Give the backbone structure.
Amino acid sequence: MADIPRIKGNIAKMIAQNAPEADIDAYVASEGVSLDDLRKPAAPVLDKYQQAAVEERDALKAKGIDTGAGLTRRLAQGASFNMADEILAGLSTPLEMLKRGTFSPREGYNYAKAREDLIMDDARKNTGALGTVAEIGGGVGSGLGAARAGLSFARGLAPEAGLLARSAASAGDSAAFGAVAGAGEGNSLTERLKSGLLGGAVGAGVGALAPGAVSLIGQAVSPIVSNIKARVNPEGYARGQVSRAIQESGRSAREIGQDLVDASAAGQPYMLADALGNSGQRMLSTVARSPGEGRTAVVNALEGRQAGQGQRVTGIVDEALGSGNTARQTVDDLTQQARQNSAPLYQEALSRRPVWNERLQQFFDDPVAQRGLREGVAVQRLEALAEGRPFRPHDYAITGFNEAGDPILSGVPNMRTINLLKKGWDNILEGYRDGTTGRLNLDEYGRALDSVRRSFLREVDSVNPTYGAARREFAGPAQVRDAVRAGSDAANRGRAADNIARFEAMTAPSQQGYRIGYADTLAARAEKGAMGVNKARPLTSDKAQDELSALSLHQGPVQPGQLDPMNRRLAREQTMFETRNQALGGSRTADNLADAEAMGINPTLVGQLLSGNWSGALRSTLAAGQNALTGNTAQVRQAVADILLQRGANMNPAALQRMVDEATRRIQQLQQIARATGRGAAGGLAVATPAQNRK
């Protein structure tokens, strides 16, 4: 047999020496070889271990024994990350030592390893592409198994871990798999180290890119998958979306459910969309701005609820302040009560004859008394007329009237005369009262007259204590009446600190009158507001909050971070208005476009086509089909509306928690599947990477 390597070496030397082509052809002919022989690749140079393996295989084949391996061997090779031949060689090392007559385990292992390498090479030649699939499948299976067993850098990652953390974990897993698989493809320590480093580097690089690639692919197919899920099970898809909104709200499902139950117990139509805050309000807005039964349900529910806001706000304030009547009704009731309580005392006091003295005479001698008597007579005549009885002047020690209309007294005045003078002065001073604010705006004369009146009454009380008792009985409700006016005034003006200080200085009955006046003014303001106006907003100011807290009958302990019952209910009313504003307020452009799309009309698209704007028309067409490629279907929107419009009366906090838990489990399962798939892919990549040094 010709020594082809030697001949090729000689030819190379002749070419280097610029020998003529005829001399080279003559040399080739003298060696007895042809050009085809020279073109054939040289057979690999085998070491003694490989030569022994080849001879053993050929000898067995000559005896009809097939030593080849198939798909199973390649599957095992992939599953072991290219370490199956090493494992089998290690197990058969003792047998090879006996067969070769050596006491060196190293020698025995080298013979066994050469045999396993030869079997693996034959298996790869015999099984082809199908075997490659089996080998990669084995790597995938081992990668999945490692992930399930927790042998992964992603084991400690939180479910909400970001892309950077997931990429780092994936790079670590892929690097480990690649390093093991690469080390398994070498024979010498140097080969294993080199292949392991290369496999680890390639695995780390590809593994780091894998989560991002998977995320991009997921985003690309997500609309299609969402559309399929939404059409197959719109209720389940809607529950998943609402569960996402609950998680975004930052509150637990049980807290939200209990909030709804508490609102229902307080008589408020508080909905799940309200309790979720911004996430629920924006989701409800999506439903309200797209055509379908869901939009109709949302609009009807929110508009109907807003129509009753004024009554609810009034009821909240009335209940908190203990105001059952209006201020006018309260004043009338108090006046009637004062008359009834003081009537017996007045009757007794007026029937007594006063102990006349010079001080009383001094008051009656002053011209201001004449004016007071004249006003008193006018008032008494009207009262008698209203009660259907005649006015008899002689009952008041009046014998007649002069040309100016002043009464003429006969002898010493009696108690009825004294009471007549008091009524006259009261009526004169009442003329100074401001009809808007209810306050007495006294000028210098008025202040002087008021001082005279007070001095006069003190003197009368000293000579007739029963009269003083009657006046005090009548003045008790009168003070409450004044407190009603003061409370009404405080709701419109004044600093909160001043109003609260005035309230706290009052007696308990006057404080209640103050509350009634305050609540009546707020109720009147709420009733005046037009439909759609936020009746709760004026009560959210610092002044209103401080005053309402001080006036509220609920003065019990409040948990830290919570509002008292009244302010909690008012806060819900504010939230309910914000929900309506988020869902139905703002520009109608989005609503109009959605309606036009539902009708199959897109004026923008028509204009673009007419103007020849083909790229714009294409974008409009793609945008028009967006909902068709997502889960935003009419059935899903209807289901979302049904969930978000739930109230406490039909809300079970435990059921809401189960819905969230179920959605969370599904998300975690998908994340686990995605991570396990990534680890499986990393295992398959490790045994399939081109960096492997396959013989």
Observations:
- The first helix runs from residue 4 to 16.
- The radius of gyration is 51 Å.
- The mean pLDDT is 79.
- The CA atoms of residues 349 and 467 lie 5 Å apart.
